[in-house]
Amino acid sequence: YKTLLSKKSMKWGHSKVSTSSLKFACQDINKDGIKDLVLYNSNATEADGGFYRVYTYAKGKAKRVGTYYSLRVCRNKNFFSDSRAHMDNEHYNYYRLGKNGKVKKLASYDTQMMHEPYETTYKKKMKQGIPFYYYNFKVNGKATSYSKCMSTIKSLKKNSKDTLKYRANTATNRAKYIK
Prior knowledge:
mainly beta
């Protein structure tokens, strides 16, 4: 990870960013005994594909496992979540990072405000007088009901703690926090 972060710049989406503008956090997300790396780019845009990148160490190299818009890592429950909002739509995803570096989607759903979605299965809820439609419910990649999806997510979130602490990408911080 030190090599990756020591470079002057790196490609992020459609542009190059100075690595000195990035923040990083290290934590063993997949519980394999080796810390994984999370990068945060506050200057990224939606077109860049996300503000966060997750790397794991596989076969002697840093391997990027994904780019995310909003990241919450809950190591104590062995999952991380990502959400993305665009116009009146929101997408929620809950993942587990395997020891092999593969990301498994545990649960996901979408919401849409105001207009009924094209999906045939949805749950309507009112929030401050505005209709919100919940749809596209999945658990382990398979379509499911609203209640099964929310139950899965509730059990993941119960007593979960986002434990990442981001550091400025400086030589001092890399030496201190990346082993």
